[in-house]
Structure formats: structure tokens, C-alpha cells
Amino acid sequence: MPDRFGSVAFAYGRFMQVTGLTTSFGRTIAVNDVSFSIDAPRMIGVIGRSGAGKSTLLRTINRLTPATSGQILVDGRNVLELGGAAMRRWQRDCAMIFQQFNLVPRLDVVTNVLLGGLNSHGTLASMFGMFGSDRIERALHALERLEIADLALQRAETLSGGQQQRVAIARALVQEPEMILADEPIASLDPVSAETVMTALRTIHERNRLTVICNLHTLDTARRYCDRVLGMLHGRIVFDGAPCELTQDVVREIYGTEQDIDEATTSTSLTAAAPVRLAHAAA
Ligand SMILES: Nc1ncnc2c1ncn2[C@@H]1O[C@H](COP(=O)(O)OP(=O)(O)O)[C@@H](O)[C@H]1O
Ligand SMILES: [Mg+2]
Question: Whose CA is nearest to atom 6 of ligand 1?
């Protein structure tokens, strides 16, 4: 069944259908009977209050956290049932980006990026520093795309937060993923860095035709960069639509009624700018 966000051919990504996905921790149902499908590369923002289940949803999709029940069908296969090499392959196919970057602080930038290709490369060869020159070239190319190639030999810990997050995105890219799952990628960043990182994710979505699912704690960011928004409340998806369909009533439902939502107070953007729509470029 096509999703209702257009019928663009799914050039490089794959159809994904999530059905009845539930993830519990003891009595806490973090993700509660969640269903949605993606039939074309999308830039999807997941919004909701702290504790709504956003991180658990991404972690369950990536198999970092075991699901309690439900299905995630990708090309007709339930990825929740994959084991061993097939599961690791899936984890590589949906690269994760975290709020805290998760780089190795004392290693230089290019080595951090090369670590992204570890799964596919053979751990031993990588551990002895024998990355092939083609891989190094790819890593440098990824850094160039994120406009930080000049930092390649600097230790990760010397970089600003925004630069570190761009390294993490470059590391995800060399995994050659089909999807990027970003868990609050800009929550620790200043507004200028946040814009750079969101623009980088949007550009990758458009140029590589990848689905990006991005947990965001600010509404204006979701409106500005995403073409579809999932709103979560108590583990459930209570909104699935285009940003323009996010009315005040919907926003109040997602964030709760006890306070009026002032988007400016939760804003990470420099200005309340118009949505960013980059031109589609050739891959
Ligand atoms: N590893 C865990 N063990 C126990 N409870 C957890 C764990 N991870 C998340 N939770 C709980 O699941 C719910 C959803 O959390 P989370 O997915 O982190 O929400 P969000 O990312 O929207 O803030 C919360 O009640 C949280 O306390
Ligand atoms: Mg979270």
C-alpha cells in the first residue's frame, strides 16, 4: 500500500512496513502498537515529549533494543527475525546517529569515519590499520561532502559539537546505508551547528535518495526540514502527516494540554525561516 506522501519511485531505498510494533521494559510500554509504512525515500521527523518512546522506536528498528511484538517488513522480510550476519547487515543498512556523536575521542577524524565500514571490511584488517586506500578515499570523500575534510587528521575530541556530529554522519555514510536513523542529532548543539547538521541530513536525503528518520525535540525543526512528521505520545503514534497538517490542536495533543505551545521557546533555529527545500541533485 503506498504511503500518502506521493508515489515517487523508491529508487535506492526499500519499502518498509512497520506493523503493531511494541517494545516493553518490564511494565513500561515504551513503543505501543506502532504501525506506519514508508514507500519512498522520506525525511521523517519524530516528535513528542521526553519519554514518548522516540528513542526506543529508532533503537527497535535498528535492533539495538529487542521488540516485544510486531513486525518490520522490508522487502517482505521481517527484520525482527533476522539473526547473525543478516541482522548485522540490517544494522548497517540503517545507520544510527546519536545525540552524543559516539566518536572515539582520541582517534583522528578519518579513522573514526573508517570505523563506520568495519562490519563490511573484516575486523582484523581494520584493527591493524590496514584500511584499503579505496576505503580511505571514500572516507575522505564523505568528509568532503560534509565540508570537514580539512579536519581529517585532527583528534575527534578537539572538534566542536557540530563538527563531531558531521564526522558521525560521514561515518554513517561510509556504511553505505539505505536509511539513516538519527536520535536527537542536534539536541546538544548550538543553533548554527544545528542548522548545519540538519541541512547535511536533508542534503543526504535528497542526493542519495535515503530515508532519514530523525527524532527531534523542537517542532520548528521538524516543520522546516521534514516532509513527514510522526507525533508520539505514551508510545503511540498520534499524528502521521505533513508538517502543514500540524495544527495547534494536534500539537497540543502531542505535547499535552497543560501549557500553550510556543514554538519559539523550543526553537533551535536562528530564525523562524521558511521550510528548507533543496533542489534535487544528481547522485
Ligand atoms: N533501557 C530502558 N529500560 C527501562 N525503561 C526504558 C529504557 N529505555 C527507555 N525506557 C522507558 O521507555 C519510555 C520511552 O523512553 P524513550 O524511548 O527514551 O523516550 P524518548 O526518546 O521519547 O524520550 C520511558 O518511560 C523510558 O523511561
Ligand atoms: Mg530519546
Answer: 25
Domains of the chain (ranges, CATH numbers): 41-55+83-266 (3.40.50.300)
* pLDDT, tens only, 9-50: 343 456 899 999 999 999 999 999 999 999 999 999 999 999
Q: How many helices (H) and strands (E) does the chain have?
A: 10, 10
What does the buried/exposed string (b/e) look like for 51-76 if buried means 16 or more CB atoms within 10 Å of the residue's CB?
ebbbbbbbbbbbbebebeebbbbbee
Binding-site residues, ligand 1, Cβ < 6 A: 25, 28, 30, 48, 50-56
Candidate from 31, 34, 50, 56 with most ligand 1 atoms within 8 A of CB, to mutate: 56
Pairing of strands 179-183, 211-215: parallel
pTM: predicted TM-score of the whole model, two decimal places: 0.86
